[in-house]
Batch of 4 targets.
Target 1
Amino acid sequence: MMHKYKNSEAKSCLIDKHIVFLGDSRIRQLFYSFIKIINPQIKEEGNKHGNIPFEDKSASIKVDFLWYPEVNGSMRQRIKSWTEGSVAKPHIIVAGAATWSIKIHNGSNEALTQYKINITSIAPLLEKLAKSSDVYWILQDPVYEDMLSESRKMITNEKIDAYNEAAVRILNSSSRNSKAKVKVFSVSKLIAQETIMKSSDGLHLPESSRDMNAMILMNVYCNKIMKPIDGSCCQPQPPLTLIQKLAFCFFTLSIIGYFVISLIHRNNYRKNKSCTDLEIGEEKKPTINTPSVSTLEMLLHCFCKLGLIMTYFYLCDRANLFMKENKFYTHSSFFIPIVYILVLGVFYTENTKEVMIKLTSYL
């Protein structure tokens, strides 16, 4: 389930944090949706093709958008300054770009080849940053080709898929540090597949979809810090506690002990059982007697049932195994059905004495 963060909760999570959004106009839109969670009064102002700073002094939160529409040497130099220079590293880095490369180079295959070379050169730098910071690479959303302007007609979904495949393959190919990989953010692509038809220009997502992407990004980072009750979508799986481990061992031993004792008991019963009677030369039918059950076997059998019940409840509580959905309580949804039932009860009641008199008269 996804938790809907309020601005106060977002500030508590991101206090004293520096977040950087690095990329093109699509990343800029995500940047605005993200800072609106912190400050809902913010307006989309400033140079569209330039850097945009944001700072919340009450919580010492700094969020910057850096205009790098292409994965090239300039983007590599900026990332390198965080890994090797004296510049302070951001706590969260959100990056992504591709559509400008498709547009400027008219969708040529040479541009895709150069994109692969450039992203290969920055992949080690991003992985190095991922050791101490949270690094997210945003996959490119699909476009609505029918609504694209003539200057953007070369941006096709086929080209975007090729760029996304290259990014995923290169960023996930390194095994030098498997615990600190760059996180590929693909949920935006899935949302865009359903909502891109509502786009105003065929390239940029509608505001509702951008806000959802920003909220998911907030959940990915903050759920493990804030641990909201209804925010189970992005929390890491909690480790087993000592009590859970002891209970697991106890119930496992109980199940094993029950089967062993039951098997031994039934084998002894079969050996002592006589199935034939040769006194008259006729085969005697075996008497139907069930083996007596010992107290220990009954106790272990009860523990086995309890263990299965506890395992069922444990599995049902695992959000990473079974999907959950958000459920909201409202006074109207609770009281209207109750009032409806009470009204029906008032109008559809009869005196029991009168009913009994009618029944006896019929009989």
Note: The CA atoms of residues 26 and 204 lie 6 Å apart.
Target 2
Amino acid sequence: MTTTTTTTVTITPPLLQQQAPALQLSFDPRIQNLTKHGFLFGKKLAASMSPLLHDVVYQGLGLNWGQLRLDSDDMDLFLNLVRDPKFYGASVTMPNKVAIIPHLDYLTPECRDVGACNTLFLRDDPNTPGRRLLCGANTDVIGVRESFVQNVPNADVYENRPALVVGGGGAARSAVYALHKYLQATKIYLVNRDPSEVEAVMKECKERGYGDKLVYVESVEQAERLEGPGAIVACIPDFAPVTESEKTVRKIIEVMLGKDHKGAMLEMCYNPSPFTALGAIAEKKGWQVILGTEAMIWQGIEQDKYWTGLDASELPVAQVKEAIAARLAELSNA
């Protein structure tokens, strides 16, 4: 990876104007007022609850830390900013989750196997005194896992049974990995409106050694013949189906929900509301529905474990849940 000893960013006014507001963040007075600071690094961050979640954690621990939004895909800028001695780590979101990996010194197994990094944390280099290693983790996987572990009283509901993942993006990849590694799914059904996205997921998972369990469910007739799932992770927006492929996906999901075995469904969509049409259908069919905010909260708690060195039991999880629920209530009433 490329390293530099520079801890400040020197820029000319024209460049500052071209790349604002991202570059302006390096001069943000809030950084100087914090004991330690981190970043939320990605694009379209205005609605993200990540800074709120982490601020609640730090306030609960009595830490003068804060996470600042860095709305940018400028990797060179980011790699300069992380050299600040007061930098503790970053949440990494789209479009930077894959692009950041070549710049990291170490990847956790989840990060390596999923092929995406949503968490940057620091560790001391044992071979070079004073040098900090840039390490990558994927806590989205833990968010999926803990959503089920923390909310489903009886693991027999989903363990040693097939599972279903709806979608074909980054969240779906994390869900597949969590179901495979932690939740003991015997098979993982994939349902999505775009066959090419499913093919890409299956290809990548097989290359990384955990694709043998994947089954692409393409039709209602096929779904009717399959054993019912115990866990469902829905990773699609809360839009009414319009195209024929979208309608087919909805029908396949309804077939799975209608089978005799009733399990738990994690509805990953929570923006603008965690109470989705798909979630309502699942509840009506007798399924337990886990709100997407649960996955968001638990992946954030896992991040703070890396950054603070504390266990989840030592972090103010209850206060985080209260703060996220309050923010959602504000948004729904707006």
Note: Residues 1-18 have pLDDT under 50 and may be disordered.
Target 3
Amino acid sequence: MENLVKIHGAGGYDSDFSDDDGEGDSSEKARERKRETEILQKPFEKGQHSKVAHRSLHSCEVDREEARNRRAHLISMNAFERHKKFVGDYILYYGGQMADFRRSAAKDKTDLDVLRENHRFLWRDEDEDDMTWEKEIAKKYYDKLFKEYCIADLSRYKENKFGFRWRTENEVVSGKGQFQCGNKHCGKEEGLKSWEVNFAYVEHGEKRNALVKLRLCPECSFKLNYHHKRKEVKVKRKRKISEENEEPTKKKKKKRRKSSSSSKKHRHKKQKGGSTSSSSSESEAQNSDKDSEAGNEPDSQSEADHWRGPAPAVEEKSREEEFDDYFEDMFL
């Protein structure tokens, strides 16, 4: 029995030893496989995860992907849409109303408001000192106005208050204020009169005066002169005589004076000494006839004067002076 037990024990020992050899072989095979995979693996390839990733790593990857998508969405939006999105997110998370984020338009100014604040009826050299961009806009608008005649507002004529302004380009083209009544609310074209008014006004806290002209119909002229009559501008026609025409007229006047003085002397002698001889009367009659013939023939003398010396210099008018003479009657 003891021999059997020992043998069994020895056999048992042999079986245990054989199992250890099998496990060693498997471990060696696993190592060899690992070495082969390491040799065959490329440097840019990632290793295979044999285990499940941790939850924190998963959440980090998700957040990174969400941030990437959000950034791409914000870049695709313009500045105003991005601003609206941020305001909406703020109201969504912190509460509030859209009215709290609206900009106040109480201090907004348009170009028309800037013109009204800085406009001047007449610009002086003193006004152009310390020019700002608002004053430059007003000055640029002032330079585009036409300052020959004014447009008047006579709605408060009973209070002796009138409003005047210069004409724009469209009004000049249509004839408003020159060929039509200069009243703002009147368009008559008959019986127009030109008036000269001393316009006293207050501008930027300073009292100023300006002499302006306007053309009005009879009804509007009555409104303008309701309290006291203004000065009416009438047409003054100037007769311009050239130097060539002035010389013969001067000669005619001298000859007429000589003939009149000789006739007066002749009459005076008749009253003192009585009648004179017929020869003297005939000679005086001949002299008077000669004077009358000389007065009636200025052309012959003028032709003779041409040969006495050089021709008188005649000043030629420029084109601007000719236009001024032509439009002189129209602008009065």
Note: The chain has eleven helices and five strands.
Target 4
Amino acid sequence: MGGWAIAVHGGAGVDPKLPEERQEEARRVLRRCLGVGAAGLRAGRPAVDVVEMVVRELETDPVFNSGRGSALTQEGTVEMEASIMDGRGRRCGAVSGLTTVKNPVSLARLVMDRSPHSYLAFHGAEDFAREQGVEVVDNSYFITDENVRMLKLAKEANSIVYDYRVPVPSADTCSASAGLVGATTDGGMQMNGLPISIYAPETVGCVAVDSGGWCAAATSTGGLMNKMSGRIGDSPLIGSGTYACGACAVSCTGEGEAIIRSTLARDVAALMEYKGLGLQEAVDYALKERLDEGKAGLIAVSRNGEVANGFNTVGMFRGCATEDGFMDVAIW
């Protein structure tokens, strides 16, 4: 075994004009979360505990799109989703359509550990949360003023907006900015044949391998700004946004519909298992050959303590740490 290792991400598809102060804020959060995860692994915690713990931290901080700070639906509410998978026995749990659960990833863990099912959604998931005594809050807890303003711009542009962490312009420039957001859809990217605007989703995820060589992965998100109520992306779908097995653990981020079609996370594992590729080779192959024209990124660890990442977007918020003391946080 190569020792423990951990990787985190805060989303792929970074705006190249993202202000430096926002970049540093993102790096600060990633460093802190890596520190939390590394401390857990150093203390001998199992990988599945560590990925849950780290994603909880990311959900609590409004910097990224999960938990507090989640993207808003067309109705101005938050609907969150998350999943977790333990490579030991390939156990998994997932949730969607959450509106009051403070930490969706922990409810996903409870679905895995305390229910006969792998996936619960909407009212059923909320009822299960209350049965389990999970902390719940009013939906307003997850909503930030910045996201309310960005939803307004998205509605004015009649577009789904991905990059909502870029500071919102002042009121006197909102109409011009809305025009810019809409303009990017002309001859630009499409999702399932429909135009979208700026591409920078900020799902969060964590993968880890513990000192015993067991891998785990967790992913959490608020989805797309101005999404239709009821939309489900790749993050809670085992094999698409999240996967862990005896060989590796993977967490994806990006264009959810493309990740779903390609079963991206499982493909990385399959390439290792059936084609004999190394971890980074499998990541590179999956991103190049399986996404068609989709845009995405992912992080991965292997049972041997290797860490890999890849993305076909401008950038991806990411970081990793290993037992030998290496730690790195990057965006571009």
Note: The radius of gyration is 18 Å.
